[in-house]
């Protein structure tokens, strides 16, 4: 049997049904509703229970088809044109398509559509009647803002697309969909705006997506890794988000985005360092407030990465650099602490990470308790037991709070990982170690690219024009152009009227 | 578009040159200069040295612009036959390796003096070279961009130190003017060349430029920044430490930072912090020297991966860095570098450009 004949449908309804049953292993949630329309034409509606919208199917398909009198409308027509007639005269369902091959038919049934087969015809009608379980639109869990919109993506890609379409009514908005995963056949779509997004970027993204060969891509996080430029890096090379407004904004800036069915996280690419200190809220607020908040986030990044290391270096190697009064109080508080500062720091930072991880795993109400109880009790007990110094606890606490101040969860994780290496470097070489670590991180970042865009731009390579929306968030009336670093097709955001 | 993105812009070349020149020289050279001159007369030496450097930089830039897309070995082969070109390139490789070793060793020496007393010199130099090797293994445009990242920080720190030391300058230290005999000025000029060695890296970086014809002006701007900075630093150093004082400390610029008091005493021992930040620019110099050495060698051998070159060159540079027994020998190494630089860095480009002009040689634009 050749593959072609394999995928062709039979004219006999009974044979087709048998084939569907055997292919799917005759599961008990497979619904095959057989009925007859006048004059004696046998039909079958095939779908899977639970994945369809029952009411819709009943009202717009079953009722209509069953009531339809074929002999009246065109007595002479043959069986083949029955489907065509049904389509044009009987059905009130919107999303109807003709299927001619067997494999797409099976795929349609499996993805929650329903299929109408008719005896004597080697074709079938497919209805987009997907229903099934889906969550309502809720506020994004991982990225809350004060003034932003409250809707977040859900697991359903259709809903997610709608949330974006609802915001951008540009006819050039493109959702290029394709299925991914040998077995899971998840729908995925690349979103961009034709004429605005750099076309090379879209081509390259699609090329990379084609290279994914896996049975199931397991959501957007895994696809993100498949299409990343580099895997030897702790930094995220694309930005994940639950917020439709974030994707909308990214599209308008000349970035492209990706949605995958089954996950509430979309991906934005390409990204550079600056995107991780920006929050959508920056644009919902006064520019001064936004700028100051961005400065705060940059400080938070540096505090997370270097604060514990600086403490280690100063206490262990360069006591002379601490102002004398402070030096005395630090020395006083470290009285009786048995470990060198680096061990002390690693111990406390390790405990903190443990608490954080435990807080995520536990059910929500308990999760918060563990933060408070664990943090306070362990910190207090460790100090009074003389294992760590109070100053160390302060340092650890500031580091922790800083790391949570970053808008991107993935980015803050990478920063926290790097922090441990910087701490080790400081433990071995003091300030010299810290500066070498800083240099090494810089080397790494300068060599990184996200979809061909240098990760450190617009700092290096220097694009001064883009600095208007970097740390500074210039007043909105000044942001007339899109960021240059993305090479958008249409550079101008605002045209003078 | 991809290749366009990975080309160097004019400002990057300006920063590259500036970043290459700010290195160990600016920390140590004021001592040598103060030895031979009165007051701040050595500024004349610095400016003269800068003029000399400007001529050579201009020649290098012109040469590169004349033979676009060709590396040093390729165009010197066209100008002065293969054997001489080969000697030039090998000498350049060795010079740059020696320079990288010098920087690594100097870092180790200064670190021991200002940061920690117990850590062995070898370990400090080794870690530094490891970071340099890591940078060299990355892309070459990244090395240029690192300059753009670090130089502003370093220059700001220097300006910060200068600003806070302005109130402790003794005007009397700066006098008298113009009393140093011209022989001493010339001697000082030779010493100031220590602050300018390494500009030859332009040879390998101009070819990365988007518009090589803009290279001469870009290089001149870089040099201008440096000269102004050097002169101001020298004046402030002499103003604070006096001529006598400057002669007797190893690293006058760092001692200057020691004298600085920040109102409120938030920091103490500013010189350690200053030096730590200064490591960034020394790192840049060493990296570019190493990269140029690697590139020169690669242009001769014509094949091989970066990792293989690093595998062979790094140990050699490390061992060379350990060669000087003490600080005195390190200074001798510095003088040796200046001497080589006089031939290789200063004379060679001028001669090459002269011959190329006389013979009317030009690079094939399509080649």
Write a structural description.
Chain A: One of its GO terms (biological process) is spore germination. The complex is a heterodimer of chains A (497) and B (367). With 497 residues, chain A is α+β, with helices and mostly antiparallel strands. Chain A has 3 domains: 3-127, no CATH class; 157-271, no CATH class; 286-454, no CATH class. Chain A has helices spanning 3-7, 13-24, 54-67, 70-73, 82-90, 102-110, 157-165, 199-210, 219-226, 244-253, 287-316, 324-333, 341-361, 364-384, 390-404, 409-447; strands at 30-37, 41-48, 96-99, 114-118, 124-127, 173-180, 186-193, 239-241, 256-260, 266-269, 449-450, 453-454. In chain A, helix 11 packs antiparallel against helix 15 and helix 11 crosses helix 16 (409-447). Chain B has helices at 2-5, 10-21, 24-36, 42-66, 72-80, 82-114, 121-137, 140-165, 171-174, 182-192, 202-205, 215-247, 252-259, 270-301, 306-322, 327-359. Chain B has one domain: Amino acid/polyamine transporter I (Up-down Bundle), CATH 1.20.1740. Chain B is 77% helix and 0% strand. The mean pLDDT of chain B is 89. With 367 residues, chain B is mostly helical. The interface between A and B is medium-sized, with 31 and 36 residues.
């Amino acid at each position: 049997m050749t593959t072609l004949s394999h995928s062709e449908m039979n004219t006999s309804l009974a044979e087709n049904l048998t084939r569907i049953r055997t292919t799917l292993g005759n599961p008990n949630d497979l619904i095959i509703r057989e009925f007859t329309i006048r004059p004696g034409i046998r039909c079958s509606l095939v779908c899977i229970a639970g994945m369809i919208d029952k009411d819709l199917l009943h009202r717009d398909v079953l009722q209509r088809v069953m009531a339809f009198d074929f002999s009246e409308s065109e007595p002479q027509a043959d069986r083949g044109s029955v489907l065509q007639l049904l389509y044009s005269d009987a059905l009130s369902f919107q999303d109807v398509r003709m299927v001619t091959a067997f494999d797409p038919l099976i795929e349609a049934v499996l993805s929650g559509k329903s299929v109408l087969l008719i005896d004597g015809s080697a074709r079938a009608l497919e209805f987009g009647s997907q229903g099934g379980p889906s969550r309502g639109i809720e506020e994004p869990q991982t990225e809350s803002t004060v003034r932003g919109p409250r809707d977040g993506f859900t697991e359903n890609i259709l809903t997610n697309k709608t949330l974006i379409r609802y915001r951008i009514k540009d006819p050039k908005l493109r959702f290029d969909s394709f299925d991914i995963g040998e077995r899971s056949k998840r729908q995925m779509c690349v979103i961009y705006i034709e004429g605005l997004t750099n076309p090379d970027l879209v081509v390259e993204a699609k090329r990379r997506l084609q290279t994914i060969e896996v049975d199931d891509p397991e959501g957007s996080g895994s696809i993100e890794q498949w299409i990343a430029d580099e895997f030897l890096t702790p930094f995220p090379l694309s930005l994940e988000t639950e917020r439709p407004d974030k994707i909308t904004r990214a599209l308008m800036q000349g970035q492209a985005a990706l949605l995958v069915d089954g996950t509430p996280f979309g991906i934005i690419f390409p990204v550079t360092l600056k995107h991780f200190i920006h929050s959508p809220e920056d644009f919902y607020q006064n520019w001064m407030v936004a700028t100051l908040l961005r400065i705060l986030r940059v400080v938070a990044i540096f505090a997370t990465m270097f604060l514990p290391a600086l403490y280690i270096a100063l206490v262990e190697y360069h006591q002379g650099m601490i102002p004398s009064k402070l030096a005395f109080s630090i020395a006083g508080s470290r009285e009786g602490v048995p470990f060198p500062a680096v061990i002390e720091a690693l111990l406390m930072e390790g405990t903190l990470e443990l608490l954080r991880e435990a807080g995520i795993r536990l059910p929500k109400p308990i999760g918060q308790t563990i933060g408070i109880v664990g943090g306070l009790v362990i910190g207090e007990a460790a100090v009074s037991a003389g294992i760590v110094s109070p100053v160390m606890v302060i340092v650890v606490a500031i580091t922790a709070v800083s790391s949570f101040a970053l808008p991107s969860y993935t980015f803050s994780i990478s920063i926290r990982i790097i922090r441990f290496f910087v701490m080790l470097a400081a433990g071995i070489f003091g300030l010299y170690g810290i500066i070498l670590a800083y240099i090494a991180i810089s080397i790494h970042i300068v060599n990184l690219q996200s979809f061909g865009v240098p990760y450190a731009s617009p700092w290096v390579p220097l694009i001064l024009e883009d600095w208007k929306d970097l740390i500074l968030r210039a007043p909105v009336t000044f942001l007339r152009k899109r960021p240059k670093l993305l090479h958008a097709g249409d550079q101008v955001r605002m045209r003078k009227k | 578009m991809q290749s366009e993105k990975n080309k160097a812009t004019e400002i990057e070349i300006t920063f590259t040159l500036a970043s290459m020149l700010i290195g160990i020289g600016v920390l140590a050279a004021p001592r040598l200069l103060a030895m031979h001159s009165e007051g701040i007369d050595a500024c004349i030496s610095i400016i003269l040295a800068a003029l000399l450097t400007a001529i050579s930089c201009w020649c290098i830039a012109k040469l590169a612009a004349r033979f676009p897309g060709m590396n040093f070995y390729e165009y010197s082969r066209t100008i002065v036959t293969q054997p001489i070109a080969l000697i030039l390139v090998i000498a350049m490789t060795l010079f740059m390796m020696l320079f990288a070793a010098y920087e690594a060793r100097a870092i180790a020496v200064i670190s021991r003096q200002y940061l920690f007393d117990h850590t062995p010199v070898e370990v400090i130099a080794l870690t530094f070279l490891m970071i340099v090797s890591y940078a060299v293994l990355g892309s070459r445009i990244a090395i240029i961009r690192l300059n753009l990242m670090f130089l502003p920080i370093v220059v700001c720190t220097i300006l910060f130190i200068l600003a806070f030391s302005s109130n402790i300058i003794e005007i009397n230290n700066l006098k008298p003017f113009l009393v140093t005999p011209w022989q001493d000025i010339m001697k000082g000029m030779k010493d100031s060349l220590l602050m300018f060695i390494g500009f030859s890296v332009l040879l390998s970086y101009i070819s990365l430029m988007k518009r090589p014809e803009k290279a001469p002006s870009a290089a001149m701007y870089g040099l201008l920044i440096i000269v102004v900075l050097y002169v101001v630093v020298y004046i402030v150093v002499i103003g604070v430490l006096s001529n006598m004082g400057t002669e007797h400390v190893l690293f006058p610029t760092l001692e200057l930072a020691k004298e600085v008091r920040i109102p409120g005493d938030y920091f103490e021992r500013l010189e350690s912090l200053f030096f730590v930040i200064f490591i960034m620019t020394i790192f840049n110099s060493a990296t570019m020297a190493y990269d140029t050495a690697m590139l020169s060698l690669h242009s001769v051998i014509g094949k091989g991966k970066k990792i293989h070159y690093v595998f062979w060159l790094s140990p050699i540079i490390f061992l060379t860095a350990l060669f000087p027994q003490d600080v005195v020998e390190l200074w001798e190494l510095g003088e040796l570098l200046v001497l080589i630089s006089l031939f290789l860095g200063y004379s060679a480009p001028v001669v090459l450009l002269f011959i190329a002009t006389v013979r009317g040689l030009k690079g094939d634009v399509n080649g």
